[in-house]
Amino acid sequence: MTTSALAAGLDPATLSDLLRVAGSPGFDRLTEQIRRTGGCTAPIRLTGGTKLLDPATKTVIHAYNTDAEPGGVLRVACGNRRASRCPACAWTYAGDTYHLIRAGLTGDPGKGTPETIRDHPRVFATLTAPSFGPVHNRPGTRPCRCGIQHAEDAPELGTPLDPATYDYAGAVLWNNHASELWRYFTIYLRREIAAVAGLTQKAAREQSRVSFGKVAEYQKRGAVHFHAVIRFDGPDGPHTPPPAWATLDLLTAAIHAAAARARVTVDAAPAHGVAQDLTLTWGTQLDVQPIGAFGQGEELTEQAVAAYVAKYATKAAETTGTVDHPVGNKEALILLGVPDHPRRLMEACMDLDAAYPDRRLRAWAHMLGFRGHFSTKSRAYSTTLGALRQVRADYRAQQQRTALGLPDPDEHPESTLLVVAHWAYAGHGHTPGESWLAANIRRDIQHNREHAREIRTELDADDTNGEW
Fold it and tell me: Is 390 helix (H, G, I), strand (E, B) or coil?
């Protein structure tokens, strides 16, 4: 281990702690705990325990206490969705989002949607922010406005051509109100569907329903935009077919009309650089594409859409160069080395905080003003993230019952046991040596997953060719 640790370029303090961890009596159990968290970067440390009691006889069937654990604590995954904070937990969150979105596209009876959902009109819509000033970009094969044909990874992409004239106040206020703008869009969408169909709003609601799942993504310029799966359903949701008039073309036309109508007004704040009332609207770059049936060769498939949404569910403003935690003052931005453009956006949030105290712009400066949920869905779209997590919890509980030889309460309700638990927070995170160990465990788990995925892909291809 010493040789591999040195080869990894560890500093002396980390190497020393790693050797201490490796030589401790509870090393195998510590490794098991870390593996059970998926190699979580900053696990929650708990002290306490549980008891399983027979309520009839008050007999203790099984007892667990953290006193016997390494360090006297039980480590559980932090559950952070941000890949910048915890790649392991973000992978789980992205997987849940993938299954949630895909269930609303392909159908999954176990997740609340029938397979007939694939026959419903569905589109993948992208709603963007308007322009706040020209920025460096890659317009196809043509050079940027600055006269340079930028490389794909050029650091200046998304930054203003002239920072002095860029509307930083408008940009962060748009981000800050983006969720309200989306809410108005969904309201107008239902109205526009009725208008395009030539029905009253009441009649349209009685005959159809609109469901959606969306995720927010940051563009390089620091503006939020939304990717959404929007689907036509029948009056009772995904289990009923939409009416004949609820076509793909009608849905597309209604989306364009609703996006054009949606707007939010922000009062002027002359003392803080907002000279007049602002009318916030969606940008002109509205993209609406039909979603093809999975595996039918269409360019935009169900699997591709679900994977795309899941990918951005774990990312936030740090992709633009900001930090992934709140920052108290402008001086800290310099110390943290935040690049010029995102720094100016964060400074605009701080400058405008006093003008709009209810919007909490300073608190959300690290998000460039955005304060909404990154992943949301309508109630009838498909299952919920909570339900998916509960399935995992039930599976682990079943594993534990099997290991202890306990009966399944669903099959033997008369054998239901009483669980008495007491837990206390004891901190979070790893020591330097534990962090190195967790990173390597996470890498191994990721490698195994990728290898298993490659095998499944090959088997699916062989099955398609009639070899299995």
Answer: helix
CA–CA dist 212, 232 (Å, integer): 9
First to last CA, the chain: 43
C-beta of residue 92 within 8 angstroms of C-beta of residue 84 = no
Instruction: Of 269, 264, 283, 304, give the one whose Cα is nearest residue 179.
Output: 264
Beta strand pairing call for 122-127 and 287-290: antiparallel
Read off the pLDDT of residues 101-141 as tens digits, 9 standing for 90 and up.
999 999 999 888 999 999 999 999 999 999 999 999 988 88
Tens-digit pLDDT profile for residues 52-111: 888 878 788 888 899 999 999 999 999 998 888 999 999 999 999 999 999 999 999 988
C-alpha to C-alpha distance for 284 and 128, rounded to whole angstroms: 8
Q: Round to whole Å and give the CA distance between 31 and 263.
A: 53
Contacts 24+ apart (CB under 8 A), 26-31: 26/69, 26/70, 26/71, 27/70, 29/69, 29/70, 30/70, 30/71, 30/434, 30/437, 31/437, 31/441
Asked whether the beta carbons of 6 and 15 are under 8 A apart, the reply is yes
Question: Do 417 and 53 form a contact (C-beta atoms < 8 A)?
Answer: yes
Residue 185 exposed, middle or buried by CB count within 10 Å (0-12, 13-18, 19+): buried
- Does this model's pTM top 0.70? My answer is yes
Write down the pLDDT at residue 4. Answer: 53
Give the pLDDT of residue 6: 45
